[in-house]
Each structure stands twice: as structure tokens, then as C-alpha cells.
TrEMBL record:
InterPro entries in alphabetical order: DUF4142 (IPR025419), Ferritin-like (IPR012347)
A Pfam entry, by short name: DUF4142
Protein name per the record: DUF4142 domain-containing protein
DUF4142 domain location: 38-174
Length: 179
């Protein structure tokens, strides 16, 4: 494969990102400035979280028993796909190739949810893919919006935060309908 991309080790001096699945490398010719390690970690984590939301939402569309959970899942798939596409374009503009796939932890969650009976699925999906995952992602995007060193990534995080917060609110309402 002919490419002018170098390994991520060449991008950052720290070994924290070396060999990290999900971020394949960067194209220095397209990168005006190098991204910080924290910005690269944001890209990596956001890509995996978004891919996990799509995969979990697709699973919920076929496994959820409550219509409102199926509708929530459909919305998660639609909106996270759109966000994933925007994130991937932004990363490419920065010379970073992303792998849009759930990470190991989310893959294990997918496997666990696949094997739940119908009575347990809705609550587990909402609690883990809805409330917990969106809480984690909200902190990730808030951190990038507040402290990111790349202006485009900061702006992306700022613009995406209201959607993430809305998803979290929806999941909380579905988890605790009387609250």
C-alpha cells in the first residue's frame, strides 16, 4: 500500500498512543500543525464511542421490546452516523485516519446484550448504551471543548455537546419515566 503516512509514533513523542487501534496515522503533508496527544485521544475515543452507539442502536432496533426504546435506538443510529461522518471528515482534514469500530469494551457489551432475553434487554441497553455511555461521552466532549488545542476539534466538540446532552436526557427519561 503506497502512502505518505507515517506511524503515530512519529506524530507524538509519547508512547501513550503508539499502536493504538482506531487511529492509523497521519499525513504530515496535509497537517499544517501537529495535533496534540490529547486531541488525538479525543479523535480516537470519539470515533469508537460513535461507532459503538451505531452498533448498539442497530442491535436495539431488532431486540428492544418497547416501541419507545426502538425509536430511541433509531434516533441514536441516525444521529451518531451523521456525527461519525463529520468526525471522520474532520480527522481526514487533519491528516488522521480513523477506524470507526467499537472498542473492545463496547464489543463485549454488544455480545452481552445480544444474549439477554427480551425482558432484560431494554433496561440494560438504556442503562449502558444510553445513560452510562452518553455520560462518558459528554465528559469527553466537554473536556475537548474546554481544553482542546485544535480550534476545529474544539468547535466540533462544542457543537456536538448539545446533541449528546439531549441523548443523555432522553435515555434518563426512558430509564426513569416517572422522574
Amino acid at each position: 500500500m503506497e502512502t505518505n503516512q507515517t506511524s503515530l509514533n512519529d506524530l507524538v513523542s509519547s508512547s501513550a498512543l503508539s499502536g493504538m487501534p482506531g487511529v492509523f496515522g497521519h499525513d504530515p503533508a496535509r497537517m499544517g500543525t501537529r495535533l496534540s496527544e490529547s486531541d488525538l485521544m479525543f479523535l480516537y475515543k470519539a470515533a469508537h464511542a460513535g461507532a459503538a452507539e451505531v452498533a448498539l442502536g442497530e442491535l436495539a432496533q431488532s431486540h428492544a421490546t418497547r416501541p419507545e426504546v426502538q425509536q430511541f435506538a433509531e434516533q441514536m443510529v441516525r444521529e451518531h452516523r451523521k456525527n461519525n461522518e463529520a468526525l471522520q471528515r474532520l480527522a481526514r482534514d487533519k491528516g488522521v485516519e480513523l477506524e470507526l469500530a467499537p472498542d473492545t469494551e463496547d464489543g463485549q457489551l454488544l455480545d452481552r446484550l445480544r444474549h439477554l432475553d427480551a425482558a432484560e434487554f431494554d433496561d440494560e441497553y438504556l442503562q449502558h448504551a444510553g445513560v452510562y455511555a452518553h455520560s462518558v461521552v459528554e465528559r469527553l466532549f466537554n473536556q475537548e471543548a474546554s481544553n482542546g488545542t485544535d480550534a476545529d476539534l474544539r468547535r466540533f466538540a462544542e457543537q456536538t455537546l448539545p446533541v449528546i446532552r439531549h441523548h443523555l436526557d432522553m435515555a434518563q427519561q426512558l430509564t426513569h419515566p416517572s422522574a
